[in-house]
Specification:
The protein is 89% helix and 0% strand. The protein contains six helices and no strands.
Amino acid sequence: MACCEDDCAVDALREKQSSTLKIVLGINVAMFAAGIGAGIYAGSSALLSDSLDNLGDAMTYGLSLYVVYRSSQAKAQVALFKGGLILLAALVVLGQVIYKLMVPTVPIFEIMGLVSLLALVGNSVCLYLLTRHKTDDVNMSSVWECSRNDIASNISVFVAAGAVWFFQSGWPDIIIALALVCLFLRSAFRVFSNANRELRTV
């Protein structure tokens, strides 16, 4: 009887995780579609990094959804892959920053500000939904980590938009983009560390 209750509780938890992941996946796909176009049009490295982060998150949530009903080892292996996606996003943004240093432009701050605020609302909803699951397992912990990064990223892009307007310069955009690269790198290595620790225990 106790085993049945335990199994039912686990199944119920997995069902809740699955429902939450489907919602945040949809939100991030929508934000990526809006953000990538806006970032390219506005010429903003910070906004582009934000949209790429949404793409990485969408892929992450899709993978997390895939392993909800799988073993702890599978979840840890997917978490390693998620860390790789975060690392890749950091390298792409770094490349964009280097390009902007060679071909300097002033981004369109109005688009930066508006899109970052909309993204902040969407990511706040995601973080709220994921917070209740952040201690469930390494899978949900890693997606919560991604969502928390998104909030910092959105706020940073909004601040960059204000600084671009105030200084009429592209430097705030570049500085914020570099700060986001550091955030992504730190997050990637934290996810790697947690996943490796989980793999050693299974």
